[in-house]
TrEMBL record:
SUPFAM superfamilies: Cytochrome P450. Heme binds at C462. It holds the Pfam family p450. It comes from Bimuria novae-zelandiae CBS 107.79. This is Benzoate 4-monooxygenase cytochrome P450. InterPro entries: Cyt_P450, Cyt_P450_CS, Cyt_P450_E_grp-I, Cyt_P450_sf, Cytochrome_P450_monoxygenase. Belongs to the cytochrome P450 family.
Length: 532
């Protein structure tokens, strides 16, 4: 009996030795395959990207992914292999082929599935199945018609005007300093709370709901990083668990409170006869429009989980990019005083009173305002990095290259929006590039527009695009009509690039973002003075 132990240990050590050799052999073989024999082997990129997806995970963790995409395209050209099975493109033709056409033989990648699953199911944003997504999109479309947006406009203006009242200095001089990033987050949250849920969250004015607004970016950053884990599918079921609350801390607890708040709003609408009760029947918020709606074509009706998830999705998808573009526009305007002066003069000469600032011909005539928004959208972009699409059965051709089923392809907004082939002096904030002139003919602007996709494109493009534009136009027009704006003396450069901040972050006139689907950002610190 005693003599059995040495035999057992000898067998075990042999087993471990064979196992280790086999594992090393497998890894070496996999590396050789990925570098030399993989169908994407001929595409350029750093060796580390070809070997594994870990560099992408690291870039997502540090928030520098968009910068690496740009630098990699500058170094390796229009097609870069950014992971063993993933290609990034940087051409308008690829942009259109992958996202722009209804017939593109792709679907959203599994990567999306991590984002709003904590609310219970997949939303229109994270649904990867093309048929199920088409049904959701049709179901949601009545909430985003011109009439629906017009009906909500007084609410938008009311919240913007209250925002302006809160910032108004008490004296005739310059008021208190404020962080444009934080204030934009609160305003975006209040706007979407009102538009999606019909709630008056008042986080601009009061502290009560600010934790909910402030949790969005840190939670998104954590989810973004987790979504790149090779084992993300194992993590997803725990995203609403206490385990995840411990890992994510306060932002995740607050995010769960936000999900619960949305669920309560859904339940309030679903309870018996809520549709006809006073207080609900006349409501025009997006959730009320969707609760009892169905997809006319398939007859699909949303479950309460669908409504929970979609209301959270609309809150987050609507609030954060708006806030990002708003604080970015403020940054670029205070850093470019000529542009600030021009846009302010245009708004003040177009409208005799703030009551006149509504959608319509006069607002549309503010071409410089629109150009400032376009240029801010170009510099900031809605989603910074490569948004993955997976090639479906039958494969597809992009830029004359054929790719088989399962290849992951995409374009990174930050990279294409700063591609010098399409945008001259891409790091210059220049609203003028969007305005036709003898030196800038409409054909040149059309050419640029083909590389411009701040709201995404095609069937998976942003359903809230028109609403987003309207909110941005109304906010900047009301705000600049009422106030002179400047960056605070002594607080200059908050949010800007500087030497030593990291690779690609040295430009002092660039608003810095740390990639987390949208961008984590800060500043600028500004102050206002009443103009009248
Ligand atoms: C400045 C404002 C906004 C920007 C820059 C923006 C940007 C984007 C982008 C780039 C996408 C595509 C993302 C991808 O393919 O992964 C997207 C999708 C989406 N956005 Fe927006 N968005 C804005 C405002 C809004 C608003 C106000 C709403 C509505 C409440 C909204 C709801 C959505 C939804 C539901 C999707 C998913 C669409 C689908 O896959 O069918 N967005 N947005």
């Amino acid at each position: 009996m005693l003599s059995a132990f040495p035999i057992f240990y000898s067998a075990l050590s042999h087993l471990i030795a064979y196992g280790t050799v086999t594992l090393i052999g497998y890894i070496v073989a996999l590396c050789v395959y990925r570098v030399f024999f993989h169908p994407l082997a001929k595409y350029p990129g750093p060796l580390s990207y070809k070997l594994s997806g870990w560099p992408l995970l690291w870039q997502a963790y540090t928030g520098d992914r968009h910068i690496w995409h740009l630098l990699d395209h500058e170094r390796y050209g229009p097609i870069v292999r950014i992971a063993p099975n993933t290609l990034s493109f940087n051409t308008t033709t690829a942009l259109n082929a992958i996202y722009g056409t209804r017939t593109a033989n792709v679907k959203k990648g599994e990567w999306y599935k991590t984002f709003d699953i904590a609310a219970g199911t997949y939303s229109s944003f994270t649904e990867t199945d093309r048929e199920k997504h088409a049904i959701k999109r049709r179901w949601m479309s009545p909430a985003f018609t011109t009439e629906s947006i017009k009906a909500n406009e007084p609410l938008i203006i009311d919240i913007i005007e209250r925002f302006c009242e809160t910032l108004k200095p008490n004296s005739g001089g310059w008021g208190d300093k404020w962080n444009a990033h934080l204030v934009s987050v609160y305003l975006g949250f209040d706007l979407m709370g009102a538009l999606v849920l019909g709630s008056d969250l008042r986080s601009v004015q009061e502290k009560d709901n600010r934790d909910l607004a402030e949790c969005v970016l840190p939670t998104q950053k954590l989810l973004y990083w987790l979504s790149y884990l090779p084992v993300a599918f194992l993590v997803r079921p725990f995203l609403r668990s206490q385990w995840f609350e411990v890992l994510g801390g306060k932002p995740v607890r607050d995010s769960n409170r936000l999900i619960d708040y949305g669920k309560d709003q859904v339940q309030a609408r679903l309870t018996s006869n809520a549709r006809n009760e006073t207080g609900f029947k006349d409501r025009i918020d997006l959730l009320s429009k969707l609760t009892f709606n169905e997809d006319k074509k398939s007859g699909w009706r949303p479950s309460s989980l669908d409504l929970d998830t979609e209301s959270l999705n609309m809150m987050l998808a609507g609030a954060d990019p708006y806030s990002q573009v708003l604080s970015g526009a403020i940054f670029y305007l205070v850093h470019n005083p000529n542009c600030l002066e021009k846009v302010t003069a245009e708004i003040r000469s177009t409208f005799a009173s703030s009551q006149e600032i509504v959608s319509g011909a006069k607002l549309n005539s503010c071409t410089y305002l629109y150009a400032c928004i376009e240029e801010s959208l170009r510099r900031l972009t809605g989603v910074l990095s490569h948004v993955p699409r997976v090639v479906l059965s039958g494969g597809m051709t992009i830029d004359s290259h054929f790719f088989s089923e399962g290849t992951v392809v995409g374009v990174a907004q930050y990279a294409i929006h700063h591609n010098a082939d399409y945008f001259t002096e891409p790091f210059k904030f220049s609203p003028e590039r969007w305005i036709p002139s003898p030196t800038n003919p409409p054909s040149a602007i059309d050419e640029m527009r083909r590389a411009f996709e701040p709201f995404g494109l095609g069937v998976r493009g942003c359903i809230g695009k028109n609403l987003g534009y309207l909110q941005l136009k109304l906010t900047l027009a009301h705000f600049l009509w009422r106030f002179d704006l400047r960056e605070c003396e002594g607080e200059k450069g908050v949010g800007a690039g500087r030497k030593g901040l990291g690779i690609g972050r040295e430009r002092e006139d660039e608003y810095q973002m740390w990639d987390a689907l949208g961008g984590v950002r800060d500043g600028p610190i500004v102050e206002v003075k009443s103009a009248r």
